[in-house]
Design brief:
Order of helices and strands: HHEHHEEHEEHEEHEHEHEHHHHH
Number of helices: 14
Strand content: 15-25%
Number of strands: 10
Number of domains: 2
Low-confidence stretches: 66-70
Radius of gyration: 32 Å
Shape: elongated
Structural class: alpha+beta
Distance between the termini: 31 Å
Mean pLDDT: 81
Strand order of the largest sheet: 2-3-8-5-7-6
Length: about 400
């Protein structure tokens, strides 16, 4: 084996430029696959980490968005709203530990002569509000959280505070006018990474009901299940209860439910599909690289025809000739794979760093041992498969014909 490797390295070293160009195809293909898979795995890990922080024991209830799609915006814009009796029904379900209501509207916000539209959310500031804070990833960077009686105060998002909504920064104790009502800034949230969230404003539920004139309607209900209860089972009970009080048939509900576990599974499914598409695109580079190896090996066979004839004349078997050329092809695949893995890892780290800088999401690069070993073996396999035909052609040469070749 060591002799084959030495012979392969010597032969490839004699054609440095051609070998380098051949390696490029494999390097680019493997680098693309490693980078895309590691970034995709990092996205999955980030999503799962965020859901774990929220807790998988949460249930979200909101009005139907009209097209069967669950989103905060479609739920907020729906003409059908949840009511206080729906919240009471959810709280009464066995297995529900706490439930909290949220209302969210576009509001006119004024600051020092400027006026902008942005989302304003009202939520309870008692212990039930902790469910919403966990789900929406609200964390205070400066100032204080809202508490009971803070109906004239707000907490602003990162972009509102840092010139993302108005031309001037908004600081603690500044005054904002929202739908004609004045509020003092009590706190500033940490950067979440979502533009809509970072440009939003939070206030107490009572304050929101006052400025939006909404004494009854609810845009979303967040429920938390008790320990030992399966969220999916509790969600089914909630659905039956809401159908009963609304007198609605199955499949025709004016509301929709999702558990955080279901949302996480859906997100992972989407990411898996995206990852598979990216890998398919990157694999095209490997096909091109494989063709490059085949071309290089065919040229090598032609250039070394007399050498092959001499080897056969002194006793080299067809199997030996085949092994030499396959070793060269595998060597190209192995070197290209190793360099490609290194480059792919660097690219994925660069992408993760860029995401962290420009979005605030601390996404990690996941370079699993399975990915690294699999990529290296795959590149060697591509090399060997691409070298089979040239190697067989070299092995089948007649010694007399090969020796007369000019």
């Amino acid at each position: 084996m060591s002799e084959l490797i030495n012979v392969a390295f010597k032969n490839l070293n004699q054609q440095k430029a051609r070998t380098f160009l051949t390696l490029l195809g494999i390097i680019i293909g493997i680098a693309a696959i490693v980078a895309l898979v590691s970034v995709g795995d990092g996205m999955k890990a980030f999503v799962n980490e965020q859901f774990e922080k929220m807790g998988t024991n949460k249930i979200i209830i909101m009005p139907s968005g009209g097209a069967g799609q669950m989103s905060m915006i479609t739920g907020m814009m729906s003409s059908v709203k949840l009511k206080q009796e729906d919240l009471r029904a959810v709280r009464a379900v066995r297995g529900v530990d706490e439930a909290a209501e949220l209302i969210m509207r576009l509001a006119k916000v004024e600051f020092r002569g400027e006026s902008q539209l942005t989302f304003v959310s009202g939520f309870p500031v008692d212990k039930t509000g902790k469910i919403i804070e966990d789900m929406q990833s609200y964390e205070i960077a400066e100032g204080n959280e809202l508490k009971e009686g803070d109906d004239n105060k707000v907490v602003i998002g990162y972009l509102v505070a840092n010139g993302g909504l108005f031309s001037r920064d908004v600081s603690l104790r500044n005054t904002l006018t929202i739908n004609g009502h004045k509020f003092r800034v009590a706190g500033i949230m940490k950067k979440i990474g979502s533009k809509s969230d970072d440009a939003s404003i939070l206030m107490t539920l009572d304050a929101a009901r006052k400025i939006f004139n909404e004494p009854e309607d609810i845009d979303m209900i967040f429920a938390q299940t008790k320990p030992g209860y399966n969220p999916s089972d509790v969600a089914d009970v909630i659905k039956r209860q809401l159908r009963r009080i609304k007198n609605e048939k199955e499949g025709e509900e004016s509301f929709q439910l999702r558990t955080t576990e279901q949302i996480m599974e859906k997100a992972n499914s989407v990411l898996s599909v995206i990852n598979a598409i990216f890998i398919g695109i990157a694999a095209i580079s490997l096909v091109v690289g494989g063709i490059g190896i085949m071309n290089t090996m065919l040229m090598s066979v032609l250039e070394r025809t007399r050498e092959i004839g001499v080897m056969k004349a002194i006793g080299a078997t067809n199997k030996r000739i085949l092994s030499i050329f396959l070793a060269e092809a595998a060597f190209i695949g192995m070197i290209g794979g190793a360099v490609g893995i290194l480059m792919g890892g660097l690219v994925s780290y660069g992408v993760s760093h860029a995401v962290a800088v420009y979005t605030g999401f601390q996404m990690k690069t996941v370079l699993s041992p399975q990915l690294l070993v699999g990529a290296l073996l795959f590149s060697m396999l591509v090399g060997v498969i691409s070298g089979v035909y040239p190697a067989m052609r070299a092995a089948r040469m007649e010694p007399t014909t090969a020796l007369r070749y000019e």
